[in-house]
Amino acid sequence: MEKFKNLGETFTKLRKEKNLLQSEVAALLEERGISVTNQGVSKWETNKVVPNAIQFLNLCDILGIEDVMSTFSDGYTGFQSGLNADGRKMVTELIHFLSENPKFSNNPVSE
Questions:
Q1: Are 63 and 15 in contact (CB under 8 A)?
Q2: Would you call 8 helix, strand, or coil by DSSP?
Q3: Domain boundary assignment for the chain
Q4: What confidence tens digit (pLDDT) does each residue in 59-111 have?
Q5: What value does the CA radius of gyration of the chain take, rounded to a whole number of Å?
Q6: pLDDT digits (tens, 9 = 90+) for 42-65
Q7: Domain at 3-79: CATH architecture
Q8: Rounded-to-integer distance, Cα 66 and Cα 74, Å
Q9: Environment class of residue 45 by beta-carbon count within 10 Å: exposed (0-12), middle (13-18) or buried (19+)?
Q10: Cβ atoms 25, 59 nearer than 8 A
Q11: pTM for the full model?
């Protein structure tokens, strides 16, 4: 079984790296239709409560987490393993390019 990092500590570290207050994270979640207070964010960060799946995925998106397994585990590497920040950024840009290109996307072309 893989050893996972402390969820709350990881969220706190990433939130602070983005220069976001807990109240700002709560407001960003509210914009997405997820009702949570800054006290709720605090409870996640202190591991008193664990966010549900919808909250977790939106929180990851707000904090810029693209490789969840690599971010929250010690030793397990996700599909971006071995890449530094610039490499991960390039992968993300390529994914966005391919998603928007009708030749590579499952989305139908609008005419």
A1: yes
A2: helix
A3: 3-79, 81-111
A4: 999 999 877 877 877 665 666 667 777 887 788 788 778 878 888 777 655 54
A5: 16
A6: 999 999 999 999 999 999 999 998
A7: Orthogonal Bundle (1.10)
A8: 16
A9: buried
A10: yes
A11: 0.66
